[in-house]
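Hi there, hope your week has been kind to you so far. Thanks so much in advance, here it is:
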Amino acid sequence: MAKLSASFRGGAFFLAGFFLSLGARAADCGSGDPKEIHVLSSESFVGKGSVFEALQGEWAKVCAACKLVAVTPKGSSDLVGRLRSEKRRGCKSRIEIVLGLDSTALAVARAEGLVSDERVFDRGTFAFIADTKRFPKAQWPKSWKEVDAKLKGKALVQDPRLSSPGMGWLRAIYEMKALPEAAAKTLPLRVFPSWSSAYEAFMGGQGAVVWSYVTSESYHRCEEKTPADRERYLAIPLEEGYPQVEEWIALTGVAKGRGKARELVELMMGPTIQAKIATTNWMMPASTAAKLPDCMKATTSIKAWSPSKPATPNEVKAWIDRWSL
């Protein structure tokens, strides 16, 4: 695969400037429905062949006179930072919906009154993805207890301050307690600013293992042209499993046109769009009724781990501080 498609888990949605002082929820700016609905999202949700492209076609059937506009943060994947900026703009904001906040970022957005009416859009599970030509199955760890010995100096990971998978890496260390902190700090071969930069380096042969999503294996199984390539890039199953992630859709705290915005959210949570998530956004749809293609079913056996309660923003800040030392 010479080039990754833009819709294949492109960016990360975590935040620089993560912890500002909490603010009150902004006032509703009215219920009038504009002709344009603006959706704030990362690049992974937009572009050719993306779930957003599919959504545009379906939305045109519902509201032929309406226009759907994707807004992606420039220079970073900081969705919460952009929501803060929109809140400061008040009723001049033109963002009605945000798509792609992970649960950690959502907790911050909720606390600061940046979002409302939140719903899970899709979900996934983090995992080590191995290039089996460079790291054969016989050498794989079978549990997290073996990860330090067998993956040390091999894995490409992401910066948790900038990347949702990077935050997933910290969750494995501090929330799941799958790996001691000292071992986790020496395990990576290299730390990248984003998922896309790490995965491109992995595909370019700069590492034998990359921290990614279980559905990265699904992408290769579904999209590669030869049987050998379809079996080359695989998720490493570990007995204890991996942290699960949910990506959310919500109205912004200053959303105008809430009627149309809510109608659009309902469309996105409906069967037509949910059925397209698996092979456009390469995540598992929130709807359990959505049918998965056969090429994705092998990865559903990877064990997913979830905490009994989500981490608080202060706990996450402490993780980042400890990791950065």
